[in-house]
Amino acid sequence: MKEAVVLYPSPTIGHLISLVELGKLLLTYRPSLSIHILITNQAYDAGSTTAYITSVSATAPSIVFHFFHATTLPPEFSTTSPHHTTLTFELLRLNNPNVHHALTSISENHMINGFIIDFFCTPAVTVAHELKIPCYYFFTSGACFLNFFLFTPTLHDKFDKSIKDFDAPIDVPGTPSIPPSNVCKPLQDRYDEAYKGFLDSSLKMQTSTGIIVNTFEKLEPRTIRAIVDGECVSNGSTPPLYCIGPLTSSSGHDDGRSPESLTWLDLQPRGSVVFLCFGSLGVFTVEQLKEIALGLERSGHRFLWVVRDPTNDKNQKAATALTVADLDLGSLLPEGFLERTKERGLVVKKWAP
């Protein structure tokens, strides 16, 4: 039987791209593998993935996508949580029968060497255990967030109040102290449904076959050592850690954009550049972009800054109407900023390789 690895991303483009790139990486080491990716519908509108999936299917024949029938949240489901992650956790829980069917179907013609899930897809751990398939977590962020994620149950047991109510920085093994306000918002309130989803995911991660993380040892040596030595899990064991980063997108983002940022970086003194890139949900109003620009200019530091489409509302995601070509950096940023900082800074539109 042909060997296979099954990947299960949460249904947003950023997590999908990360797992696809992980699949491509596996194929470079084991070209005979068959990579199967499970695709579910989104719990809320987080942007279309259709064009990206079509592109991957056309260029990577060893990667096969399995589309679930659309799952909808039942009318009786309600939540007081302000966080979209609550909807994602619930939708993925309801998808467990689809996961079971997909894994069983793939197993008919393949030997599944591993089932790799996004940390949002934690309900699927029970399916993997039931079918006796090795289940790995893939953590799309770096080790510094992973060690906090693993340490969350310890904080939960040690304190009886929410992180947002802490009056002192949080000491987490392997990282500098963290101000409570810097913790991602879904983890700040212990009574929030999103918090409960993250807590459950952390606990189930400790029962997995291994944790794959998008980083490399020389980037975060102290943090990785704390995880490997078991310092982040006080009441259990830490699964083996596999640092496979940095993953870089090999397709889907090219569309004519120049790799000028890499050429520019090669000309800068080693270790001298501040990199600003805030992800697909890290969007700002025009006023906020100008504040960042002024801060960069006054800092005197060299910088590489990825600027995305601005939004009219700082509490909403970016508008999707603008294309890369539509972005006029000169009008978005303070007058003369690009000229004044051209000797030590580079601003690129939308994405950097």
Describe this structure in words.
The protein has helices at residues 13-29, 50-59, 85-94, 96-107, 125-131, 143-158, 193-205, 221-228, 260-266, 286-299, 329-332, 337-340; strands at residues 2-8, 34-39, 63-67, 110-118, 135-139, 210-213, 241-243, 273-276, 302-307, 345-349. It has 12 helices and 10 strands. The protein has a 7-stranded parallel beta sheet with strand order 3-2-1-4-5-6-7, with helices on both faces. Strands 8-9-10 form a 3-stranded parallel beta sheet, covered by helices on one side. α6 (143-158) packs across α7 and α6 (143-158) packs across α8. It has 2 domains: 2-243, 3-Layer(aba) Sandwich (Rossmann fold), CATH 3.40.50; 260-349, 3-Layer(aba) Sandwich (Rossmann fold), CATH 3.40.50.2000. The protein is globular. The chain is an alpha/beta fold and 353 residues long. The model is unreliable at 251-257 and 317-325 (pLDDT under 50).
Distance between the termini: 37 Å
What spatial form do the alpha-carbon principal axes imply?
A: globular
CATH topology of the largest domain: Rossmann fold
What is the average per-residue confidence, as pLDDT, rounded to a whole number?
89
How many helices? Answer: 12
Give the spatial strand order of the biggest sheet.
3-2-1-4-5-6-7
Find the CATH superfamily of the largest domain.
Glycogen Phosphorylase B
Name given to the CATH architecture of the largest domain? 3-Layer(aba) Sandwich
The count of strands amounts to: 10
Give the helix level as a range of percent: 25-40%
One letter per element, helices H and strands E, the order comes to EHEHEHHEHEHHEHEHEHEHHE
Question: How many structural domains are formed by the residues?
Answer: 2
Query: What share of the residues does DSSP label as strand, in percent?
Result: 15-25%
Instruction: List low-pLDDT spans.
Output: 251-257, 317-325
Structural class based on helices, strands and sheet pairing: alpha/beta
Radius of gyration: 21 Å
GO molecular function, one term: UDP-glycosyltransferase activity
Family: Belongs to the UDP-glycosyltransferase family.
Keywords: Glycosyltransferase, Transferase
